[in-house]
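Forwarding these from the shared drive since the link keeps breaking.
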Amino acid sequence: MRSIKAIFTKQAKDMFRNPMVLVQFIIFPAVALIMTELIAKSNEDIATNMFVTMMAAIFAGMALVTATAGVIAEDKERKSLRFLVMAGVKPHEYLIGTGGFILLAGLIASIAFGLIGVFTGIEFARFLTVMIMAAAASIILGAAIGIVSKNQQAATALAMPIAVILGFAPMIASFNETVAKAAGILYTQQLNVIVNDFSANFTKAITVIGINIAVLIILFVLAYQKKGLRG
């Protein structure tokens, strides 16, 4: 527990020293707020929460994947993981500490999205549930990418196309029924479905997201078995 707390604190300090990572947790809620206030609320043809929905899905699918992959790949590149392992920090403690802080940062951003969307009661609870589940899925995926990558540049190159698909597929699905059907297996699309219509099948959405998480955990385990955390 002490090691997890130490890694959690280390990650917090690293993020505040790295504006490129920190800005990802600020820019998407900020864009959602600006576009909602300046465009959506003044245009009756645009749903009030359209930009909140759009930015939330992009944030969950893009920012968290690339941030996690970059953080782990950077630690591998700097040989930080080697020293942590030598100091007795177990790999799962490192991942829980690092992923836990990113998840907390994602929760704060998710609350911001919910406030911008003026969600209340059961809507707010459902929104946070699917957002946190989607964030967890992205963090696990990002961790797998970070582990298999030799350095931060390689992690970014691998994570970005995957993150773009996860982040933008729901937006495209809103305008294309064929894409919507194909994207239905993605956790970001299920997030999009719920936030667009809180009367949608919530059980189905969290089930699909749960299956995504299970598959990504298996992917992470395979990546770990192949590469480990020593860099």
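-- next protein --
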Amino acid sequence: MGADFLVLLGYCAAIFAASMLGGRISALGALTHTRTQVVMSLVAGLILGIALYHLLPHGLERIPGPGNIEKGALGCLLGVVLMVGLQRLFQFHQHDFSSEAKALRTDPPHSGKTLGAGGVAGIIFGLAVHTIIEGVVLGASAQAMIQHGGEIEALPGLAAFLAILLHKPLDAYSIVFVVRLAGMSRSVCNWVNLGHALLCPLAVLASFWIGSQLDAAVAGELAGYVLCFAAGTFLCVALSDLLPEIHFHTHDRLKLIVAFLIGIALAYALHLVEAGAAHHHHHH
């Protein structure tokens, strides 16, 4: 357990650094529209693949009884419903601020306070809940793999970690830019960035610790439900990044499709690595 916990601490440190970096990039200026969309397409493909190749199958494996598929599907659906509800209420999942950045550069006095305090608070709250869910997912995923025998013994929860690691800079980029857009000071931006960067690692460690205190059978079943629920949230996040761009824009179509497919291919490659490691583990 000691080595596994050290791996989890490494995950947390990397997620914290990635989040801080995303916030710093946002403080310096917005990415171009095309670059943002390429990154979003790549990460969306990875998240979509991890939801379907990793989270949902591992979750179903850990839910006991003949009705495990129905229970897992319900958990997945609840994850989708929660994320749709949060996005409807708080409209927090927006990563492309290239047009707002242009307005800030060309007419700062009139563009710097386009969001009120209530709107900023709602976006921060929505992203905070989203971040906590990601942390719980990673902690539960790592705990489930350890208790299940460790498909990748040295790196439990690797797929969930990579999905969060690559998506976290986009979230940090968004939250800091929204605070800037509301006309708040650099100091406030820095504190918001720090708080957001700490939130996911704290959720990871808390969920991992809670799982370690439970009976192995109970923890395994609970992790199954969490992973199926997480698959739903990941599906919603991936599609919310992709669908608006598909519906409202036609530029750079080939480039964005290639980035999306590369993301899915990365998720599938991780699946093959897991399958190979599990096969090796069961034969030794």
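The two ends are 20 Å apart (CA to CA). The chain has ten helices and no strands.

- D.
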